[in-house]
Batch of 2 targets.
Target 1
Amino acid sequence: MRFVIVTGMSGAGKSTALRTLEDQGYFCVDNLPVLLIEKFAEISRDQNFKYDKVAVGIDIRSGKKLDDLSLVLANLKNDNFTYEILFLDANDSELVKRFKETRREHPLARGGRVEDGIAEERGRIAFLREIADYIVDTSGLLTRELKKEVKKLLAKGAAYSNMIVSIVSFGYKNGIPRDADLVFDVRFLPNPYYVDELKTCTGNDEAVRSYVMSSGEGEEFLSELYGMLEFLIPRFVENEGKHQLVVAIGCTGGRHRSVTIANLIHERLKALPYSVRVFHRDITMDTIIKGE
């Protein structure tokens, strides 16, 4: 029996997570009253209960009864009942944006400011985030990406580290990504911009990749960077409690060298037990710019 409590911030994607689990064979119940959780847990482990995977949605809609959840969870543990907690989160600005786009009212806003409702909710459910088995920050995730993360964490039951690594290529002329945690400059590598037949290509093209990596320094840098990330990522998880890491790779314009290295490091990191994504922020920018 697998019993998962899906919780987190309003607007962070709990409904999507529950639908994803339901598609994977989970028996899902959303907004179950807190005082019924113990009874439902008892029913779910009865041998006549036909589902071996259950997910329960619990959030701020439980009102004041949410404060009783700590006691309920303690009772379940004392009764040797195993459960897991999936906590969906997002930064405040993203949550505000989502509520405004959907024209929904935050459950705690009471006709007031969305920001105030979010702040109150974050404080009231902080205890759940602290004890969660999995935390997914959905701030930069598309719906399909969130579904993928939920499947990796829970639906398939595979060994998986609760970390999303985003590799972002960019051009320095357009500024460093504001959400970058780590920034690496690859402007020391051979520049395809000065080769006529490569100027209008990108780092997604094999000819550009071969040119960028032709000096030998590219492979050495790639190896050193991979080793550094392999060392750093688990320590960010263990010591800083990070669940998302943005690694920015920059060249002058963000079309050739940074794209090449971002793609290559993405390929190598996929061998590690993390969810790894790659984005090329400036790849569609005008190529006829001096220096790139």
Note: The two ends are 56 Å apart (CA to CA).
Target 2
Amino acid sequence: MTSTLKIILCIAAYVVFAPIVGGLTSGIDRKITARMQGRQGPPLLQPFYDVMKLLKKETVVVNHVQIFYLLTFLVFVIFTGCLFFGGFDLLLVFFALTTANLFLILAATSSHSPYANMGANREMMQMLSYEPMVLLTAVGFYLATGTFKVREIISSNTTLPVFLLPGVFVGFVFMLTIKLRKHPFDLATSHHAHQEMVKGITTEFSGEMFAILEISHWYENVFLMGVVALFFINANWWTIIIALIAVSITYFILILVDNTNARMKWEKMFKNSWLTTIIIGALNIFILEVFVKGVTLWQM
């Protein structure tokens, strides 16, 4: 099988199966959350039922540009996942993800709703909180493997990236609480009915628009779990099993954190995120850089 054909098949598999995996993951999330709270919980397929119901509901649109921005958000999220699972440059992948989030913010602000605008402002603060750690993650992979390209990272015979990047891994997982809208950092919007500003950035979305948003999050969640798996994969086939176990444990920990913490104010989120980035992520990068240079000089 040629390299180009492999890339096409990987991209096609992501486009077709990511929403299925993402929806099932959301159902598992709800089920585990309910059990942690002493409830029975909804059926595993409830997220799919919700989306089908939303597609049948009337869609109230504030303006047509809002639909354009939201559809562009979906397209860029899918594009981000295609770049990642196609094995392309990690910096380009993260840049595409940031662009997608900007269109979501534009979709919210275009409605001129005070609640949506408040949610959009908080979403911007969240982006400022996690983007430095995301950039450090890409830099860390380059220092650990010598490349930004995902296909070269997973095909290398070097040590598993997580052993060289433990601080970066912890920092990235910390940022996932923001990206996945989990406690204590679900400031812009939440999957639960406890927001003081209705539904924040998603307040003005309804019917088909809200269904598009949910499907976008399914694609995005699968991509983010793929980045987690990247820390545990190299050319050895058995590392795929290790990666799947690591992703499952990581997601369970995020659900546990979500159900055992109260929501923070944005000031604390910003402070904790930057402290995590500087102390854990940047320190790991510094030590790795010194180690790499030391090995190079020793070999010379």
Note: The longest helix spans residues 3-36.
